[in-house]
Amino acid sequence: MHSIIDVHHHWMPPHHAENLRRVAQLGQTVRELRPGTMGLFRGESMLFWCNQQISSVDLLMANLDRAGISRAVISVSNWIEWLDLEMCREVNDAMHELKRCFPERILTLAHVPIGEPGALDELERCVSLGVSGVFSIVHLPRLGWSLDHPALDPFYARVNALGLPIITHPACEPLEYVATTPHERLPLSDHDLLTCYGRPYNTTVAVLRLLLSDVLDRFPRLRFIFPHLGGSFGVMKERLLSRYYDLGMRDKLERRQRQFSYDTAPPRWSKAQFRCAIDTLGIDRIMFGSDHPIEADYVDRAVKLIQSDWFSDVERRHICHANAHAFFQLPADAP
Asked: Which residues pair with 111 in a beta bridge?
Protein backbone atom coordinates (compact mmCIF):
# COMPACT_ATOMS: atom_id res chain seq x y z
CA MET A 1 0.00 0.00 0.00
CA HIS A 2 1.37 3.38 -0.99
CA SER A 3 1.65 6.09 1.66
CA ILE A 4 -1.40 8.33 1.80
CA ILE A 5 -1.56 12.11 1.58
CA ASP A 6 -4.93 13.33 2.87
CA VAL A 7 -5.77 16.66 1.21
CA HIS A 8 -9.12 17.10 3.01
CA HIS A 9 -8.53 16.77 6.76
CA HIS A 10 -9.94 19.13 9.37
CA TRP A 11 -8.56 20.61 12.57
CA MET A 12 -9.31 23.82 14.46
CA PRO A 13 -7.75 25.53 17.48
CA PRO A 14 -9.22 24.23 20.75
CA HIS A 15 -10.23 27.68 21.96
CA HIS A 16 -12.34 28.14 18.82
CA ALA A 17 -14.09 24.82 19.34
CA GLU A 18 -14.97 25.76 22.91
CA ASN A 19 -17.18 28.73 22.05
CA LEU A 20 -19.41 28.59 18.97
CA ARG A 21 -21.58 31.34 20.47
CA ARG A 22 -18.72 33.72 19.75
CA VAL A 23 -19.71 33.75 16.07
CA ALA A 24 -23.45 32.97 16.05
CA GLN A 25 -25.35 35.33 13.76
CA LEU A 26 -28.91 36.61 14.07
CA GLY A 27 -31.25 33.64 13.65
CA GLN A 28 -28.55 31.07 14.47
CA THR A 29 -28.59 28.99 17.64
CA VAL A 30 -26.01 26.85 19.41
CA ARG A 31 -27.08 23.62 21.06
CA GLU A 32 -25.63 20.30 22.16
CA LEU A 33 -26.01 17.48 19.64
CA ARG A 34 -24.71 14.81 22.00
CA PRO A 35 -22.43 14.92 25.04
CA GLY A 36 -19.31 16.86 24.09
CA THR A 37 -20.54 17.88 20.63
CA MET A 38 -21.94 21.34 19.98
CA GLY A 39 -23.72 22.44 16.83
CA LEU A 40 -24.47 25.78 15.19
CA PHE A 41 -27.94 25.77 13.61
CA ARG A 42 -30.43 27.85 11.71
CA GLY A 43 -33.73 26.20 12.43
CA GLU A 44 -33.16 22.49 11.86
CA SER A 45 -30.31 23.03 9.37
CA MET A 46 -26.97 22.30 10.99
CA LEU A 47 -24.40 24.80 9.73
CA PHE A 48 -21.39 23.64 11.73
CA TRP A 49 -20.51 21.34 14.61
CA CYS A 50 -17.41 20.57 16.61
CA ASN A 51 -16.07 18.54 19.51
CA GLN A 52 -12.73 17.45 20.87
CA GLN A 53 -12.20 15.18 17.85
CA ILE A 54 -11.71 18.20 15.56
CA SER A 55 -9.56 20.22 17.95
CA SER A 56 -7.28 17.75 19.73
CA VAL A 57 -3.68 17.51 18.55
CA ASP A 58 -3.24 14.12 20.21
CA LEU A 59 -6.31 12.68 18.47
CA LEU A 60 -5.27 14.19 15.14
CA MET A 61 -1.88 12.51 15.19
CA ALA A 62 -3.22 9.24 16.58
CA ASN A 63 -5.80 9.07 13.78
CA LEU A 64 -3.16 9.72 11.11
CA ASP A 65 -0.93 7.01 12.57
CA ARG A 66 -3.74 4.46 12.90
CA ALA A 67 -4.96 5.04 9.35
CA GLY A 68 -1.50 4.99 7.79
CA ILE A 69 -1.69 8.58 6.53
CA SER A 70 1.77 10.04 6.03
CA ARG A 71 0.70 13.68 5.60
CA ALA A 72 -2.46 15.70 6.09
CA VAL A 73 -3.38 19.03 4.53
CA ILE A 74 -5.38 20.61 7.33
CA SER A 75 -8.14 23.18 7.23
CA VAL A 76 -10.97 24.35 9.50
CA SER A 77 -13.79 23.06 7.27
CA ASN A 78 -16.58 25.58 6.66
CA TRP A 79 -15.82 27.19 10.02
CA ILE A 80 -14.03 29.77 7.89
CA GLU A 81 -17.46 31.17 6.94
CA TRP A 82 -17.61 32.78 10.38
CA LEU A 83 -13.97 33.84 10.74
CA ASP A 84 -13.05 37.51 10.64
CA LEU A 85 -9.47 38.68 10.15
CA GLU A 86 -8.58 38.37 13.84
CA MET A 87 -9.88 34.80 14.06
CA CYS A 88 -8.11 33.87 10.82
CA ARG A 89 -4.86 35.03 12.37
CA GLU A 90 -5.55 32.87 15.40
CA VAL A 91 -6.12 29.85 13.17
CA ASN A 92 -2.97 30.49 11.15
CA ASP A 93 -0.83 30.88 14.26
CA ALA A 94 -2.22 27.68 15.79
CA MET A 95 -1.68 25.71 12.59
CA HIS A 96 1.84 27.05 12.24
CA GLU A 97 2.63 25.79 15.74
CA LEU A 98 1.12 22.40 14.86
CA LYS A 99 3.29 22.20 11.75
CA ARG A 100 6.35 23.25 13.76
CA CYS A 101 5.75 20.27 16.06
CA PHE A 102 5.08 17.81 13.20
CA PRO A 103 6.87 19.20 10.13
CA GLU A 104 6.90 15.89 8.24
CA ARG A 105 3.22 15.17 8.78
CA ILE A 106 1.30 18.45 8.46
CA LEU A 107 0.78 20.81 5.51
CA THR A 108 -0.89 24.11 6.38
CA LEU A 109 -3.00 26.54 4.36
CA ALA A 110 -3.46 30.30 4.59
CA HIS A 111 -6.87 30.93 6.15
CA VAL A 112 -7.80 34.45 5.12
CA PRO A 113 -11.09 36.38 4.75
CA ILE A 114 -10.84 36.51 0.97
CA GLY A 115 -12.09 39.74 -0.56
CA GLU A 116 -12.18 41.56 2.77
CA PRO A 117 -9.84 44.22 4.22
CA GLY A 118 -6.58 42.77 5.48
CA ALA A 119 -6.81 39.54 3.46
CA LEU A 120 -3.75 40.24 1.32
CA ASP A 121 -1.66 41.28 4.33
CA GLU A 122 -2.59 38.08 6.15
CA LEU A 123 -1.79 36.07 3.04
CA GLU A 124 1.71 37.56 2.96
CA ARG A 125 2.17 36.76 6.65
CA CYS A 126 1.10 33.17 6.03
CA VAL A 127 3.59 32.86 3.18
CA SER A 128 6.32 33.82 5.65
CA LEU A 129 5.05 30.98 7.88
CA GLY A 130 5.56 28.44 5.10
CA VAL A 131 2.02 27.53 4.08
CA SER A 132 1.45 25.09 1.21
CA GLY A 133 -1.61 26.80 -0.22
CA VAL A 134 -4.65 28.98 0.42
CA PHE A 135 -7.96 27.85 1.90
CA SER A 136 -11.29 29.20 0.65
CA ILE A 137 -14.93 28.28 0.66
CA VAL A 138 -16.53 27.97 -2.77
CA HIS A 139 -18.84 30.95 -2.22
CA LEU A 140 -18.12 34.00 -0.06
CA PRO A 141 -21.41 34.39 1.83
CA ARG A 142 -20.59 37.52 3.83
CA LEU A 143 -19.94 39.34 0.57
CA GLY A 144 -22.41 37.44 -1.60
CA TRP A 145 -19.62 36.78 -4.13
CA SER A 146 -18.80 33.75 -6.25
CA LEU A 147 -15.16 32.86 -6.86
CA ASP A 148 -15.22 34.56 -10.26
CA HIS A 149 -16.17 37.97 -8.84
CA PRO A 150 -14.09 40.76 -10.47
CA ALA A 151 -13.20 42.27 -7.10
CA LEU A 152 -11.15 39.16 -6.32
CA ASP A 153 -8.65 40.02 -9.07
CA PRO A 154 -6.06 41.59 -6.71
CA PHE A 155 -6.17 38.50 -4.53
CA TYR A 156 -5.86 36.13 -7.48
CA ALA A 157 -3.04 38.22 -8.94
CA ARG A 158 -1.00 37.76 -5.78
CA VAL A 159 -1.81 34.05 -5.41
CA ASN A 160 -0.95 33.59 -9.10
CA ALA A 161 2.39 35.33 -8.62
CA LEU A 162 3.17 33.20 -5.57
CA GLY A 163 2.23 30.00 -7.39
CA LEU A 164 0.16 28.79 -4.43
CA PRO A 165 -2.76 26.41 -4.96
CA ILE A 166 -6.23 27.17 -3.61
CA ILE A 167 -7.95 24.39 -1.68
CA THR A 168 -11.70 24.90 -1.47
CA HIS A 169 -14.49 23.67 0.77
CA PRO A 170 -18.28 23.79 0.43
CA ALA A 171 -20.08 26.67 2.07
CA CYS A 172 -23.34 26.37 3.98
CA GLU A 173 -24.15 29.84 2.67
CA PRO A 174 -26.14 31.19 5.63
CA LEU A 175 -29.10 32.87 4.00
CA GLU A 176 -28.98 35.93 6.24
CA TYR A 177 -25.54 36.81 4.87
CA VAL A 178 -26.81 37.11 1.30
CA ALA A 179 -28.66 40.27 0.29
CA THR A 180 -30.81 38.49 -2.29
CA THR A 181 -31.37 34.75 -2.03
CA PRO A 182 -32.32 33.10 -5.32
CA HIS A 183 -35.79 31.62 -5.09
CA GLU A 184 -34.51 28.28 -6.32
CA ARG A 185 -32.39 28.02 -3.15
CA LEU A 186 -35.28 28.48 -0.72
CA PRO A 187 -36.42 24.81 -0.86
CA LEU A 188 -33.03 23.86 0.63
CA SER A 189 -34.08 25.41 3.95
CA ASP A 190 -35.97 22.23 4.98
CA HIS A 191 -34.89 18.66 5.78
CA ASP A 192 -31.28 19.77 6.34
CA LEU A 193 -30.91 19.98 2.55
CA LEU A 194 -28.72 23.05 2.97
CA THR A 195 -26.02 20.69 4.25
CA CYS A 196 -26.89 17.50 2.38
CA TYR A 197 -27.37 18.95 -1.10
CA GLY A 198 -26.51 22.64 -0.71
CA ARG A 199 -22.82 21.87 -0.38
CA PRO A 200 -22.40 19.81 -3.57
CA TYR A 201 -24.62 22.37 -5.31
CA ASN A 202 -22.34 25.22 -4.22
CA THR A 203 -19.26 23.30 -5.29
CA THR A 204 -20.66 22.48 -8.73
CA VAL A 205 -21.67 26.10 -9.33
CA ALA A 206 -18.19 27.31 -8.28
CA VAL A 207 -16.53 24.91 -10.75
CA LEU A 208 -18.80 26.07 -13.57
CA ARG A 209 -18.49 29.79 -12.87
CA LEU A 210 -14.70 29.62 -12.89
CA LEU A 211 -14.68 27.49 -16.04
CA LEU A 212 -17.00 29.85 -17.89
CA SER A 213 -15.30 33.07 -16.80
CA ASP A 214 -11.90 34.25 -17.99
CA VAL A 215 -10.30 34.12 -14.51
CA LEU A 216 -8.21 31.06 -15.35
CA ASP A 217 -6.97 32.59 -18.61
CA ARG A 218 -5.90 35.79 -16.90
CA PHE A 219 -4.25 33.94 -14.00
CA PRO A 220 -2.81 30.81 -15.62
CA ARG A 221 -0.87 29.68 -12.54
CA LEU A 222 -4.00 29.39 -10.40
CA ARG A 223 -4.68 25.81 -9.36
CA PHE A 224 -7.70 24.64 -7.41
CA ILE A 225 -8.67 21.50 -5.50
CA PHE A 226 -12.44 21.17 -5.38
CA PRO A 227 -13.92 18.93 -2.69
CA HIS A 228 -16.28 15.98 -2.88
CA LEU A 229 -15.34 14.99 -6.45
CA GLY A 230 -16.45 18.42 -7.64
CA GLY A 231 -19.99 18.13 -6.27
CA SER A 232 -22.09 16.87 -9.14
CA PHE A 233 -19.72 18.19 -11.82
CA GLY A 234 -18.14 14.83 -12.63
CA VAL A 235 -21.36 12.92 -13.12
CA MET A 236 -22.97 15.81 -15.04
CA LYS A 237 -19.91 17.12 -16.90
CA GLU A 238 -21.00 16.27 -20.43
CA ARG A 239 -24.58 17.37 -19.75
CA LEU A 240 -23.41 20.69 -18.33
CA LEU A 241 -20.66 21.58 -20.80
CA SER A 242 -22.00 20.18 -24.09
CA ARG A 243 -23.98 23.32 -24.88
CA TYR A 244 -20.79 25.37 -24.54
CA TYR A 245 -18.89 22.85 -26.62
CA ASP A 246 -21.54 23.41 -29.32
CA LEU A 247 -20.70 27.13 -29.17
CA GLY A 248 -17.06 26.40 -30.01
CA MET A 249 -15.71 26.58 -26.44
CA ARG A 250 -14.50 22.98 -26.11
CA ASP A 251 -10.77 23.69 -26.43
CA LYS A 252 -10.98 26.64 -24.04
CA LEU A 253 -12.93 24.71 -21.41
CA GLU A 254 -10.71 21.64 -21.68
CA ARG A 255 -7.66 23.85 -21.17
CA ARG A 256 -9.15 25.56 -18.14
CA GLN A 257 -10.05 22.23 -16.55
CA ARG A 258 -6.36 21.40 -16.37
CA GLN A 259 -6.15 23.94 -13.52
CA PHE A 260 -8.62 21.90 -11.43
CA SER A 261 -8.17 18.86 -9.22
CA TYR A 262 -10.68 17.11 -6.95
CA ASP A 263 -10.69 15.16 -3.69
CA THR A 264 -12.53 11.99 -2.73
CA ALA A 265 -14.07 13.20 0.55
CA PRO A 266 -16.30 12.06 2.17
CA PRO A 267 -16.21 8.22 2.09
CA ARG A 268 -19.84 7.93 1.04
CA TRP A 269 -19.42 7.14 -2.67
CA SER A 270 -20.46 4.01 -4.51
CA LYS A 271 -18.16 2.09 -6.83
CA ALA A 272 -20.13 3.41 -9.83
CA GLN A 273 -19.66 7.01 -8.69
CA PHE A 274 -15.92 6.53 -8.24
CA ARG A 275 -15.64 4.94 -11.70
CA CYS A 276 -17.59 7.83 -13.20
CA ALA A 277 -15.30 10.38 -11.53
CA ILE A 278 -12.17 8.63 -12.79
CA ASP A 279 -13.59 8.45 -16.31
CA THR A 280 -14.84 12.05 -16.47
CA LEU A 281 -12.40 13.99 -14.28
CA GLY A 282 -9.25 11.96 -14.97
CA ILE A 283 -7.19 9.77 -12.68
CA ASP A 284 -4.43 12.38 -12.61
CA ARG A 285 -6.88 14.94 -11.16
CA ILE A 286 -8.21 13.03 -8.15
CA MET A 287 -6.64 13.06 -4.66
CA PHE A 288 -7.43 11.22 -1.47
CA GLY A 289 -9.59 13.13 1.01
CA SER A 290 -11.13 11.73 4.17
CA ASP A 291 -13.18 14.70 5.49
CA HIS A 292 -12.10 13.53 8.94
CA PRO A 293 -13.41 14.05 11.57
CA ILE A 294 -16.83 15.16 10.34
CA GLU A 295 -17.79 11.60 11.26
CA ALA A 296 -15.58 9.80 13.78
CA ASP A 297 -14.95 6.86 11.42
CA TYR A 298 -14.46 8.81 8.19
CA VAL A 299 -10.70 8.35 8.02
CA ASP A 300 -10.99 4.59 8.52
CA ARG A 301 -13.80 4.29 5.98
CA ALA A 302 -11.89 6.39 3.46
CA VAL A 303 -8.78 4.22 3.76
CA LYS A 304 -10.86 1.03 3.54
CA LEU A 305 -12.48 2.27 0.32
CA ILE A 306 -9.22 3.18 -1.37
CA GLN A 307 -7.72 -0.19 -0.38
CA SER A 308 -10.65 -2.07 -1.93
CA ASP A 309 -10.68 -3.84 -5.28
CA TRP A 310 -12.65 -0.92 -6.71
CA PHE A 311 -9.28 0.56 -7.75
CA SER A 312 -6.29 -0.77 -9.63
CA ASP A 313 -2.82 -0.41 -8.16
CA VAL A 314 -2.06 2.38 -10.63
CA GLU A 315 -5.25 4.27 -9.73
CA ARG A 316 -4.57 3.82 -6.04
CA ARG A 317 -1.04 5.20 -6.39
CA HIS A 318 -2.33 8.30 -8.20
CA ILE A 319 -5.15 8.98 -5.75
CA CYS A 320 -3.31 8.21 -2.53
CA HIS A 321 0.02 9.82 -3.19
CA ALA A 322 1.36 10.70 -6.62
CA ASN A 323 -1.12 13.41 -7.57
CA ALA A 324 -0.87 15.27 -4.26
CA HIS A 325 2.91 14.85 -4.17
CA ALA A 326 3.18 16.60 -7.53
CA PHE A 327 0.43 19.15 -6.81
CA PHE A 328 2.07 20.40 -3.60
CA GLN A 329 5.55 20.05 -5.11
CA LEU A 330 6.84 17.94 -2.23
CA PRO A 331 10.53 16.92 -2.21
CA ALA A 332 11.33 13.72 -4.06
CA ASP A 333 12.17 11.89 -0.81
CA ALA A 334 9.07 13.09 1.06
CA PRO A 335 6.70 10.37 2.29
From this structure: 135
